[in-house]
Amino acid sequence: DEVALVDYKMKLWRGITKKEAPAIRTGIEAVLARFPDSVEGHLLLAEVAYDAEDYAASSRAAARALELDPK
To answer: Which residues contact 18 (CB under 8 A, 6 or more apart)?
Structure first.
């Protein structure tokens, strides 16, 4: 899952616009469909949803990441 997410991670680190967020979000969701227990994937989903100003989805993704790894 980490390898499948690296491109999205780099784009988010670089910074994205609200307009770019939907395509990146779709890609991350596709990876999560294959790796539903990926903490990294849910953290990235939380970040991209936040960038898209979808705060409810961002909160859900962050909560799922914490559920998977509460440390």
So the answer is: 51, 52, 53
